[in-house]
Amino acid sequence: MSNGTSIHPIEILLIEDSPADVRLTREALREEKLYNNLHVVTDGEEALAFLRREGKHARAPRPDLILLDLNLPRKSGREVLEEIKQDEELRCIPVVVLTISAAEKDIVSAYNLHANCYITKPIDLEQFSKVVKSIREFWLTIVKLPPQQG
Asked: Helix, strand, coil % (nearest 5) of the chain?
């Protein structure tokens, strides 16, 4: 699943409330021509419903990778990360924190909550695209992801 040669698309869950960042992420992944499905939710509560396959997300696929913004409405990214990593069914899904904050306390907090990595979003559009491409290259090409369950 991690090398792009899988029969099944890579399932990516983007938890992001900024329409501009969603669009940029979608475009950067499309440019790479990686066989993937990008699912987008815009707040923390919807993210957890997607991951737990609740309500309108009952048929949601299990993500291979989660891209998580920390600053979300309804439930913060920190709370979402904490719940993911405490859930036996979800904890092995890699979570990449992709957020505007470069504050040391946010970085330390995310790693203490078992984020797999922390990336500060660049404001420049070209740099943002490079960051998404590097995430794709590392997490979906180099890293061996855990197998799909359930």
From this structure: 40, 15, 40
pLDDT in tens, 35-86: 778 999 999 999 999 999 999 999 999 999 999 999 999 999 999 999 999 9
Tell me how crowded residue 6 is: count the other CB atoms within 10 A of its CB: 14
Q: How many CB atoms lie within 10 A of CB 66?
A: 26
**Helix residue ranges, H only, the chain:** 19-31, 44-52, 77-86, 104-112, 125-137
0.85 surpassed by pTM: yes
Tokens standing for residue 124: 């420049």
- Determine the CATH number of domain 10-142: 3.40.50.2300
CA distance 79 to 83: 6
Using an 8 Å Cβ cutoff, are 85 and 68 in contact?
A: no
- Beta-carbon neighbour count of residue 86 at 10 Å? 11
For the chain, the first-to-last Cα distance in angstroms comes to 15
